[in-house]
Each structure stands twice: as C-alpha cells, then as structure tokens.
Specification:
Elements lengths: L1 E12 L1 H25 L3 H27 L6 E10 L6 H4 L25 H32 L5 H15 L2 E4 L7 H9 L9 H14 L1 H4 L7 H10 L6 H10 L3 E6 L5 E4 L8 E7 L8 E7 L1
Parallel strand pairs: 4-6
Antiparallel strand pairs: 1-2, 3-7, 4-5, 6-7
C-alpha cells in the first residue's frame, strides 16, 4: 500500500507544527485508504485492514502528542516526513527519535510518565486546558445521554415537559389541576368551576352570553382584534362551541368585575386579566398547549 517514508534526517516540531503534520499525514493516508477500498475485490477484508491501520495511525499521533506534552522545552524531535509509497504505516517507535543518553538520568530510558511538577509552564497550561476540555466534553456527553434516555422513556415529550412544569407551578401556589372536558367549552367550563362559590348556578351558556354582550357594548375596544365582523363573531360565540381565548377572558374579567389568572408552562408563567378591578376576587385557570392530543386547552384548579 502507499505510505509515508521517514528519512534519517530529523526535525524539531512545536505543538502547532505537529498538528499540521498530523493533518497532512491523515489526509494523505485517507486518500490511499479510499483508493484501496475502491479497487479491492474483497472489500470487507480491505475495510477491516484499513480500520486497523487507521486506528494505528491515530494511536501513533496520540503518542506523539503525549510525548510533546511532557517535553521540557515544548518540542518533539521526529524523523522528517516524506509522503511516498511504502508497505506499512510507521509505528510510534519508528517516528520518535530516541533521546540522547546523556540527557537521561543514569543513562536509563526516559519514563513514559513525567511528574507534573517537572513540566514547563506552557506544558502545564496546555495539560490543564486539555483536562478541562475533556471534562467539559464528558459533561456534555453525560447530559446528552441523560436527555436521550429521558426522551426514549417518554419523559422529554412536549406533553411530559409541560405536565411537569405545570405541576411545579401549581405546587408552588398550593394548587392542583382540575380537569374539564376538551369540547370547545373548556375555558368557560373552567371559569364556571372557579365561580361556583360565588355563582353556584352559573353555566357555560351564561358565560358565553356575558362575554358576547360585553364585546358588543365595547366594539371599539375589541373590533381591531377580530378577523371577522364583531356581530357575526358574537353570534357564533353564543350559539356554537367555538373556543374562548384572551379576548373572552378580558371581556369576562371586566363584565364580572373580577380578576382572572391564567397559569401556563411557557413564559410568562402567569397572565392576569382585569387587574384594573379593585377586588380581591381571583379566578385561576390553566392554559395547556401540548398536554392534550386535541390541542390547546384550559383546565381549572383546586386547592391542595
């Protein structure tokens, strides 16, 4: 196969020079690997061989980086690189020039591990930076793994997230969710439930009529927020199970002279209607965007 030939001449490399050398070498080998695979008859065997050689190349590069990291002068001595065809990828031992014996204590080989205290200041900073980066990547990987596990357990679906957020918000306020049917009347049903202590017999139909009557009496205030004619809109509001929203909440808060609080998972977590009303009466309902398969929905609350 094509490979790199190392000639006897050596060179001293700084960290950025070693990085450039590795990039050049990897690019060269990758071209050769792809060519071998493309020309191979037994592609499965060749791919296996290529994987092994690619791993060996990566391993050698890591050893060279490690040796540079623990060098006292932030340099590494390697044979000069000449990209020509050869039979095998050089090993780490073939590329790293042996240290002169006089630079080694007692003429023995340099230890593979050097005490941190003997590192140069630059090497210490580089080591610290690499350790911090490794820890950061590990934290990110752990977080991603945890998020993936939660997703596959169904804990990170929009419904699950909204449910957890709403439960936390309700708990903070000493409340729990009171479900009402998801039938187009949900907002009015939730308010009727909230009004039961003040107006026990109030119905969804009555609340629709109160809202429509207020809208018609205050056309100038609301007409700009409606896509259709306000008279036609109010007819549908009274006679059809169309959903209520912020326009109806504003109208009902004013007509009933009360304050209405809507708790929701999205920010802001609380919306208030009728704040201009000088009253301690407060009706609390919940707005859900994802919790129900039918779509947007309102629920009421009870005290815990």
């Amino acid at each position: 196969m094509s490979n790199t030939e190392f000639n006897p001449a050596t060179q001293s490399l700084l960290p950025e020079e070693l990085d450039s050398r590795h990039v050049e070498e990897k690019s060269h080998y990758e071209d050769l690997f792809q060519k071998r695979i493309a020309e191979a008859v037994n592609k499965k065997r060749i791919k296996k061989e290529v994987k092994k050689e690619r791993d060996e190349l990566d391993d050698r590069h890591e050893k060279e980086k490690s040796k540079l990291l623990f060098s006292e002068n932030d340099e590494i001595i390697l044979d000069k690189l000449s990209l020509v065809d050869k039979e095998s990828i050089p090993s780490a031992e073939a590329t790293v020039v042996e240290e002169k014996k006089e630079n080694q204590p007692n003429g023995k080989e340099e230890s593979a591990q050097v005490e941190t205290s003997k590192l140069s200041k630059t090497a210490k900073r580089r080591l610290k930076k690499e350790q911090e980066e490794k820890e950061r990547k590990n934290r990110i990987k752990a977080a991603i793994d945890e998020e993936n596990e939660k997703f596959f357990r169904g804990e990170l679906t929009p419904q699950a997230i909204e449910k957890e957020q709403l439960n936390n918000l309700l708990k903070q306020n000493g409340l729990k969710r009171k479900s009402v049917p998801s039938d187009g009347d949900c907002m009015f049903s939730s308010l009727a439930h909230q009004l039961k202590s003040q107006r026990p017999k109030v119905s969804v139909e009555e609340l629709r009529e109160i809202a429509a009557d207020y809208l018609l009496k205050n056309k100038n205030q609301f007409a700009a927020f409606l896509e259709s004619d306000i008279e036609l809109y109010c007819q549908k509001l009274v006679n059809e199970p169309i959903w209520g929203g912020q326009i109806e909440l504003t109208a009902l808060a004013a007509a009933l002279e009360t304050r209405i609080r809507v708790i929701q998972a999205e920010s802001p977590n609380e919306l208030f209607f009728g704040e201009e009303n000088k009253t301690e009466k407060l009706l609390t309902i919940i707005y859900c965007r994802h919790l129900y398969a039918s779509g947007e929905h309102y629920d009421s609350v009870d005290s815990i």
